[in-house]
Structures are given as C-alpha cells and as structure tokens.
Design brief:
It contains 7 helices and 7 strands, in the order E-H-E-H-E-H-E-H-E-H-E-H-H-E. It has 250 residues and is an alpha/beta fold. It has a single domain, classed as NAD(P)-binding Rossmann-like Domain (Rossmann fold). Helix 1 crosses helix 7 and helix 3 runs parallel beside helix 4. Helix 1 links the parallel strand 1 and strand 2.
Length: 250
C-alpha cells in the first residue's frame, strides 16, 4: 500500500496500459483520477477500480489542448487538495516512412505523443511546485531513443522527444522536490503490438523469433515498473529512462 492517501493522475486511462496503471495504483491505496478522451471508456475503468474496493474519478481531457489540461489539473487540486503522482501515458501509434507518411499524420503523432506530454508536464509541474513535492512518470517507448524501426518515423521521433523532454524537465524540477522519470516499454500485451490482421497466436510466434525474451511484456510487468518509479522506493531516481523491452535494445 505504497500510495495510501496519495492522489494519482493517469492519462490515457480508458484502456490498455493506462487502465492497468490506474488499477495498479488504486490497489495500493491511491485515489486515482483516470483521464482520457472517451467518457464511456473512463467510466468502465472507474467501475473496475471500484469493484475491487478502490477509489477513482473520471475526467475527460484532450491532452493536446493546453486549456483542457489546465482545467484537468485544476479540478484535481480543487477536489482532492493536491496532486501527488502523474503518469503521462496518453499516446497514439501510426506507421509510415518519411517519404510516404501524410504530413497530417506526422503532425498528429507529434501533437499527441510529444506536445501532449509537454502540456501535461507544464500544468502538473505548476501544481506540484505550489505544494512543494510530486512525482511524474512519462511513458515513452523503446522505439525512438533506444531502437529504430523502418516505417515508424513519426512514432520514433515523438517518443525520442519524450525521453529527452523527461530528462530535461527532471533537471529543471528536482530542486523543487519533483521527481520526473520515464519508462520506455517494448511490445506489450495490448492491441497496439499487433500488426494489422494479426492474431495473438501470430504475434506470439513473431515475438518468439524477434525478441530475446521470446514474448510480449505483460500489463502487470509495466504496472509494477511504473509503480516502483512513482514510489518512495525509487526516491534517488531522477531523469531515468527505464527501458522495459525484453532485451530488444540490449
């Protein structure tokens, strides 16, 4: 119960990794604010948390809208009195080579994955500075700063920027008592790791050949890693970009 009496924000909490993270924090005692664009998906996340006896609230937000992110953080502080932990997980995936990718797709990937994290940091840090403490974990990717894949130019650029932004913000904020780190996962047990038309069995066969560990990561594994980084157990970790990819970038 490392997060008893803590208020935790998770963006992109309507499904997949974000939902698993929200549930993980709630199981360890946190009051969780689940944020995403879809109110229906957020409602399901809150129901799952409450069914296990946890505490959660849902707030819809578009992370690319600075005013909306400011309202999100302001509402959290107004309702709960503080913001102890923020996990910036919202992101999208799009494939395409530099030559072939439509410019609007490039712009959208950068807008959500990079600018969305920048805006979240901007407003989260302001609230945490006012209270004199806080922890932020950004979800980057092993694709970008650690590995590259042909056909994933925009995604790699956007996530490499998150890694660099995380480290810079960490240096800027640790003097204010705010710890900022990132986790860079490889393929996880979500639909995002499947190729078009691929089944789970197809993916499993591909991972046995392509990853040193021979499988995708589980949601429990990334949840455990993020919760550790957000906890006092990782109190000396500042500006860390922790790669969790089964050896792909070793």
């Amino acid at each position: 119960m490392r997060f008893t009496d803590k208020v935790v924000l998770v963006t992109g909490a309507g499904s997949g990794v974000g939902r698993a993270l929200a549930q993980g924090f709630a199981r360890e005692g946190a009051t969780v604010v689940a944020a995403a664009r879809s109110p229906e998906a957020l409602e399901q996340t809150v129901k799952l948390i409450e069914a296990e006896g946890g505490r959660a609230a849902a707030i819809t937000v578009d992370v690319t809208d600075s005013a909306a992110v400011a309202r999100l953080v302001g509402e959290i502080v107004a309702r709960f009195g503080r913001l102890d932990v923020a996990v910036n997980n919202a992101g999208i995936f799009a494939a395409g080579t530099v030559v072939d990718m439509p410019e609007e797709d490039w712009a959208r990937v950068l807008q959500v994955n990079t600018t969305g994290v920048f805006l979240a940091l901007k407003h989260e840090i302001a609230a945490m500075r006012a209270q004199g403490s806080g922890v932020i974990v950004n979800i980057a990717s092993n694709i970008g700063a650690h590995t590259r894949r042909a056909g994933l130019s925009a995604y790699a650029a956007s996530k490499a920027a998150v890694s660099a932004l995380t480290r810079t913000a960490a240096l800027e904020c640790i003097g204010d008592g705010i710890r900022i780190n990132a986790v860079s996962p490889g393929p996880l047990d979500t639909d995002m790791s499947k190729r078009p038309g691929e089944t789970e069995d197809d993916r499993a066969a591909r991972m046995r050949e392509s990853l040193p560990i021979g499988r995708v990561g589980t949601l429990d594994e990334i949840t455990g890693t993020v919760l550790w980084l957000a906890s006092d157990d990782a109190g000396f970790a500042v500006g860390l970009d922790l790669v969790l990819d089964g050896g792909a970038s070793a």
